[in-house]
Design a protein that fits this description.
The chain is an alpha/beta fold. The protein folds into two domains: about 5-150 and about 285-365 and about 385-405, Rossmann fold; about 170-255, Rossmann fold, CATH 3.40.50.2300. It has 14 helices and 16 strands. The protein has helices spanning about 5-10, 50-70, 90-100, 115-125, 155-165, 180-195, 215-220, 235-245, 265, 270-275, 290-300, 310-330, 335-340, 390; strands at about 35-40, 75-85, 105-110, 130, 140, 145, 170-175, 200-205, 225-230, 255, 275-280, 345-350, 350-355, 360-375, 375-385, 405. Strands 7, 8, 9, 10, 11, 12, 13, 14 and 15 form a nine-stranded mixed β-sheet that branches. Strands 2-1-3-4-6 form a five-stranded parallel β-sheet, sandwiched between helices. Strands 5-16 form a two-stranded antiparallel sheet. The protein is globular and about 65 Å long. The protein starts with a helix and ends in a 7-residue tail after the last strand.
Length: about 425
């Protein structure tokens, strides 16, 4: 099932217009104080819109719930959303508009690492608090930024040894040819070697590549025990289909750090997705009261949401973590909110208990190892309270509060 962007956005626009027209529901009874403005920069059209539209829904849901509970500091929240259209230039343009014209108090946005790095300097410069709510390669160290998604030390470090145990010690890596794929491939290589494994080859692919025939021939010749995939986006899903068509399905297991983030288990044939391993900070299939309630609320309001992945859950949790910081600070003053967030703010959300780590501005959270069966994720193992230890290797904002960069972590050190 694919989501109809037109229908999805139509249901969302009742609360927030795509191009940032303010919309506060009149059912909330507040005083005359101005609303607290929450900015969002996420793709609702373009190559990765399937991720962005569900993330916007998560932000809107959290804002509506907070407003229904009385708002923050006695004031309502207002969502100001721009459709960045999978375009880095629009990310930069709208970031300045949110900061200078709309004067928002916080921004939740960015999907790819490239989009994050395009807007992060703008929010630093104009002192607008920024939450990046997406799993990524790690290393961002910036006191003005909080990263709520998982990093390789929280997921890849669990996925690789499990996959090796169930296959063998020789792996072939396939990855998207940009920052995320390149750095994730390095972490895959590290964890393979740490567990006594060997990498036979690493192949990178631009996001527009759809023909994997030559690569599959190379894999057949190399005869690995395991495929490790960090392929990204709809075009790269072609690999999994072509892998089965080549008669390779079932011969060599696949473990992926990206498969399933936008409902791939249901959009490809069951035979294509069967038995693929993954490890994320959240799956829709989690059977906890918080997860079940979250899924029910999202799908009852936006019936066309096809799947709720880590991207959606961590975005929802990001809004609530920020709100908890505002409550503790008792003010919207940016530095006081940052200090409150650094104190160890926690929120029990759909993914479990999530705690902000003060020195890194990343989250301590659960990780879940799973396998696709019958087009759904079967959660096999839960890892409690996993630290963002990769980013902690290079980032300590308690000791270096003026640090402001993304480190390329020396994985071999």
């Amino acid at each position: 099932m694919t989501i109809s962007r037109r229908k999805f956005l139509h249901s969302t626009m009742a609360a927030s217009a795509v191009l940032a027209s303010p919309a506060i529901s009149t059912r909330y009874a507040f005083g005359a104080d101005d609303p607290i403005r929450v900015g969002s920069l996420l793709d609702q059209s373009g190559a990765i819109a399937s991720s962005g539209v569900t993330m916007v829904a998560a932000i809107q849901l959290a804002i509506d719930e907070i407003n229904e509970a009385g708002g923050l500091l006695g004031r309502p929240l207002e969502l100001i959303q721009y459709d960045t259209q999978s375009n880095i230039q629009l990310y930069s343009q709208y970031a300045q508009q949110l900061a200078l014209k709309d004067r928002v108090d916080v921004v939740h946005g960015g999907i790819t690492s490239a989009s994050r790095e395009a807007i992060r300097p703008t929010f630093d410069r104009f002192q607008v608090l920024y939450f990046y709510n997406v799993l990524y390669e790690g290393g961002v160290c910036d006191r003005n930024v909080f990263c709520t998604g998982t990093t390789p030390a929280q997921t890849v470090e669990k996925l690789v040894p499990f996959a090796m145990k169930n296959s063998g010690k020789k792996a072939y890596i396939l990855a998207a040819d940009y920052n995320y794929g390149q750095i994730t491939a390095k972490w895959m290589t590290k964890y393979m070697r740490d567990n006594g494994g060997e990498i036979l080859s690493v192949d990178f692919f631009p996001l527009d590549v759809t023909n994997f025939g030559p690569t599959i021939s190379k894999i057949q010749a190399a005869k690995p025990d395991l495929i490790l995939s960090a392929l990204v986006g709809g075009n790269h899903v072609s690999f999994y289909r072509q892998w089965e068509s080549a008669g390779m399905k079932g011969q060599i297991p696949i473990a992926s750090t990206t498969f399933g983030l936008v409902n791939e288990p249901s959009t490809v044939d069951a035979s294509v997705s069967k038995d693929i391993y993954g490890c994320y900070g959240y799956y829709e299939e989690l059977e906890t009261p918080e997860s079940t309630a979250f899924v029910d609320k999202l799908k009852s309001r936006w019936a066309e949401i096809p799947y709720i992945s880590e991207l959606t859950a961590t975005t929802y949790e990001g809004v609530y973590l920020w709100a908890e910081g505002v409550k503790k600070a008792g003010t919207l003053d940016r530095m006081k909110v940052i200090e409150a967030l650094e104190s160890g703010i926690s929120y029990k959300g759909p993914s479990g208990e999530v705690t902000l780590d003060g020195p890194t501005h990343h989250t301590v959270r659960n990780a879940y190892l799973a396998q696709v069966q019958d087009r759904k994720w079967n959660v096999l193992e839960t890892f409690q309270d996993v630290q963002p230890s990769d980013t902690a290797m290079v980032c300590n904002l308690a000791e270096n509060p003026n640090d402001n960069q993304q480190y390329v972590i020396d994985i071999d050190s």
